[in-house]
Specification:
CATH architecture of the largest domain: 3-Layer(aba) Sandwich
CATH topology of the largest domain: Peroxisomal Thiolase, Chain A, domain 1
Number of helices: 11
Number of domains: 2
Helix content: 25-40%
Strand order of the largest sheet: 5-4-6-7-1-8-13-12-11
Largest sheet: 9 strands, mixed
Structural class: alpha+beta
CATH class of the largest domain: Alpha Beta
Strand content: 15-25%
Number of strands: 13
Length: 374
């Protein structure tokens, strides 16, 4: 396994933003019942998922999910939603709405760090829900006032774990140049990809899980100021090929389509311990136990599987449940929402260890070990 022995970066500030439109699970469930092709069993499943997903609210750039047809902005105002929006229409909507969200999260992050955008040396933009060129990275350079010669990297289509790849790139940049200031911006407009049907019946589940949001993190070579920060200690990743067909994300004619089966939590429960063991073998982990857990909330069953593997309680993983309840699964943007909740909470002590992980197609596990710096 690659080791990041020279990893010396700190997450010194975090920011987040969500769209203006906020919907309850019941509202979105009503939209799904009106417009998905469901039999009586499917309608009952919607009602069951409203409760079982442990999500109260989600945000979207599309106002339609809380409206009664035909008063729709994005979708056609008929029961069949025909002509159903294709990839081109969805990508145009993405292009119009991704930048304001990404910019708001980035500005909040920079403000918390009292940092000037002109001092950013590296910009990493993460998204799996839309793309165009010249891309969001260039739009952010202009919108934020980042220097035109800053190093730009785009991470596209990796899914929920992509923020960890951004952190790895940032850690490498800071290790090579301790004066580097790396801004990571994740933006996901998952609700753009509502599907009336999907592979293996997955459309209903994914329609009930995912929401829109953006988040940002500033990575620097040293902690600055009095606010708590997170020191990046190491990373570990692995593939579980037996789950290759259990989570997929593909470009279809009518948007991006996800396949998600109930085997994912089972596969993770069987395999994830070996990934965590690699991180916890580090000297720091042998000297003290993990104090905080930050897991991507792919859904309640995923979180429950991780808790079972580690022998921890739901309370130990509470921040993931809080973000899931208030926002749903925002794919790659979710990680920094949870880390922000950790850093802005109370009772953090110097050197406390933080174990974090996320999962995505592959079936992939990405994880990180961090420590609190106060």
């Amino acid at each position: 396994m690659p080791k990041y022995k020279d990893c010396s970066g700190f997450i010194t500030a975090l920011g987040s933003s969500v769209p203006a439109f906020r919907f309850s699970q019941e509202e979105i469930g009503g939209f799904i019942k009106r417009h998905m092709v469901l039999d009586q069993k499917g309608s009952r499943l919607v009602d069951m998922l409203v409760k079982q997903t442990k999500i109260d609210f989600r945000y979207s750039v599309i106002p339609d999910y809380g409206r009664e047809s035909p008063d729709y902005e994005f979708y056609p105002g008929n029961q069949a939603l025909e002509p159903f929006p294709g990839v081109g229409q969805r990508m145009q909507y993405y292009k119009s709405h991704a930048l304001p969200l990404a910019r708001a999260a980035a500005l909040q992050c920079l403000e918390k760090a009292s940092a000037d955008a002109a001092g950013i040396t590296h910009l990493i933009v993460v998204s799996c829900t839309g793309m165009y060129a010249p891309g969001l990275d260039i739009d952010l350079v202009r919108a934020l006032g980042i220097r035109a010669d800053a190093n730009r990297t785009c991470i596209n289509f990796m899914g929920c774990y992509a923020a960890f790849h951004a952190l790895k790139i940032a850690a490498s940049a800071v290790a090579a140049d301790p004066a580097a200031r790396v801004l990571i911006v994740c933006v996901e407009l998952c609700s753009l990809h509502f599907q009336k049907a999907g592979p293996g019946g997955s459309a209903l589940l994914t329609n009930m899980l995912f929401g829109d949001g953006a988040s940002a993190a500033l990575i620097e070579g040293e902690k600055k100021g009095g606010a708590p920060a997170l020191k990046l200690l190491d990373f570990a990743s692995d593939l579980f090929p037996e789950g290759e067909e259990d989570m997929t994300w593909e470009i279809a004619d009518a948007g991006f389509a996800m396949k998600l089966t109930g085997r994912v939590p089972v596969i993770l429960e069987k395999g994830v311990k070996r990934v965590f063991d690699r991180l916890l073998e580090k000297e720091a982990a042998r000297l003290k136990p993990v104090s905080h857990y930050v897991f991507h909330p792919g859904g309640p069953r995923v979180l429950e599987a991780l808790e079972k593997v580690l022998g921890i309680e739901e309370y130990d993983n509470r921040r993931a449940y809080e973000v899931l309840r208030e926002y749903g699964n925002m794919s790659s943007a979710t990680l920094f929402f949870i880390l922000r909740r950790l850093l802005e909470g109370e009772g953090l002590d110097q050197g406390e260890l933080v174990l974090s992980a996320a999962f995505g197609p592959g079936l992939t596990c990405e994880s990180a070990l961090m420590s609190v710096a106060v």
